[in-house]
């Protein structure tokens, strides 16, 4: 029932966004023939005695290169006050229908395009459009409020399950809304590494993957252009390969192993013959699922500070990093779980430390430091354990000696090369 009511409210809100389209609906107006040419530019014009609500304009054509177009219009608000406005947008060869959202009542409009561009059609539209991403966002927000206010037991006694639901819902939404484009810091570099790991001995670069890695994809600012870009990437994926590269080895170096979950999911997507866009998004699930699983157990196992861990882990930026092609979310999740295990073990002062507890702490910190060795000093926290945590002094010395060896080994692979490169 809660899911149904949340979806119903989200639908009502979406209807509100389409209010003008519902009460002032009209067939798309074609102004292709209403133009004038001047100094190499073509200006399409629209004018109405009674203001018309324009949701968007669309320019269809075959563009040879990236070109900007300019829009000037006279808007009229609900009080009849007129205001002159100007916009600028871009047409791309990869997107055959350029779309600009207006969302205002307009009395007069002019669209200026360089005459060298082949514009086949210019439409003014006020059609009803359901934005599924917006509906999903409002549904998730409303449903989350329901869980917070009406399922208090979930928050008070099973906080880890609330985190699980929240992170999967909003993390999945972030993956969908981001789509096949680079939205994080250097995401194209992270994707390149995932793509290479997910490949066999020969890395076969498709046009779509190569364009993405080299940042040759056009940007978009409307839902319509987003759909066209995905279609373009899917079409190019099925064409001839751009290049092939031989791997030196199938072995994945230690600093790239945090990409393995994403590479596994990306490979699964290729086995199931998903389109490029869907495969790109599916690969991110490997990051999100491991992020959620690790932090689920960190919250569950923590004796104190559960709310603090959950709150930080559900913050938009942190969850965002755990849902994209990047190792930051994985680093954070492993280190948080490792610190929780360390804290639990440290507080059990009268109990001997088991081998699996030590392995869990060391393993999480090492895995969290693979891509960012700067965090390896966290291992030194195990030196704070008193002798009472070990079977005898000999065991303590062996354990701490091995721990120091691991720390120095990782430090050697990180600090020494950095110093050498700096000096050189």
Question: Could you characterize the architecture of this molecule?
Answer:
- β2 (35-38) and β3 form a beta hairpin.
- Strands 1, 2, 3, 4, 5, 6 and 7 form a 7-stranded antiparallel beta sheet that branches. Strands 8-9 form a two-stranded antiparallel sheet.
- The chain starts with a helix and ends with a helix.
- The protein is built from 15 helices and 9 strands.
- The mean pLDDT is 88.
- It is of the alpha+beta class and 424 residues long.
- It is elongated.
- It has helices spanning 2-17, 19-23, 132-150, 152-157, 159-178, 187-197, 207-213, 223-237, 260-271, 276-301, 306-313, 316-321, 328-347, 355-369, 393-423, and strands at 29-30, 35-38, 41-62, 67-76, 82-91, 97-114, 118-125, 202-205, 243-246.
- The longest helix has 31 residues, at 393-423.
- α5 runs parallel beside α11 (306-313).
